[in-house]
Amino acid sequence: MILRLLLVFLFCAPAWGSDNSDDLFNFSKKQEEALVVKVLASDLLVLEDGRHIKLIGVESAGVAPRHYVKYDEKGRVIEEPVEPTIPLQEQALTYAQDLLENKKVRLEYDTDAGDTSSGYLYAYVYLPDGHMANVELLRMGFVKLKIIPPNVKYEDKLRMAYRQAKEQKRGLEGD
């Protein structure tokens, strides 16, 4: 009897006082490690096994504008003036690529881990240094805040990063 109580205490004690007491038993279902091989947008990743991950709580500012080659009536390339600034969407994509591509990350799923219609899995993505990529992208102002219930586990943390970008006028929140 004492042995049973001791075993119950050892296995359940870490979950006491936490918001999600079932985390102890569902850890493997809620978290995993994976290698990011491609960043398609500032909020969309491709893993080594081909799965697509959409970052929870954020939305991309859109895709960078494409540069098309224009030709005159004789078929010669028309040289367009080079813009001195880099579009924000391109900056966001480059930042996300530097942050995530070819990195082993930890994925944490919330209540709704996937969408069968779009084929995406929804996750909080942790970098090798322990920082959450979702938060870092918001803090830099490269993504929009987009909280969609029931995935609200880190809503406060995401909102705080968004407020910080807004206060410091970074990225999308700049003037």
Structural description of this entry:
It is a single chain. This protein has 175 residues and is α+β, with helices and mostly antiparallel strands. The protein has five helices and ten strands. It has helices spanning 2-12, 23-30, 88-100, 133-139, 155-167; strands at 31-41, 44-47, 52-55, 58-60, 70-71, 77-78, 104-108, 114-115, 120-126, 143-145. The strands form three sheets. It has a five-stranded mixed β-barrel with strand order 1-2-3-9-7. Strands 4-10 form a two-stranded antiparallel ribbon. The radius of gyration is 21 Å and the shape is globular. It starts with a helix and ends in an 8-residue tail after the last helix. The model is unreliable at 5-10 and 13-27 (pLDDT under 50).
Radius of gyration: 21 Å
- The secondary-structure class comes to alpha+beta
Fraction of residues in helices? 25-40%
Lateral strand order in the biggest sheet: 1-2-3-9-7
Strand content: 15-25%
Q: Could you give the distance between the termini?
A: 67 Å
Arithmetic mean of pLDDT = 83
What's the structural blueprint in terms of helices and strands?
Blueprint: H1 2-12, H2 23-30, E1 31-41, E2 44-47, E3 52-55, E4 58-60, E5 70-71, E6 77-78, H3 88-100, E7 104-108, E8 114-115, E9 120-126, H4 133-139, E10 143-145, H5 155-167
Parallel strand pairs: 3-9
Antiparallel strand pairs: 1-2, 1-7, 2-3, 4-10, 5-6, 7-9, 8-9
Helix pairs in contact: 4-5
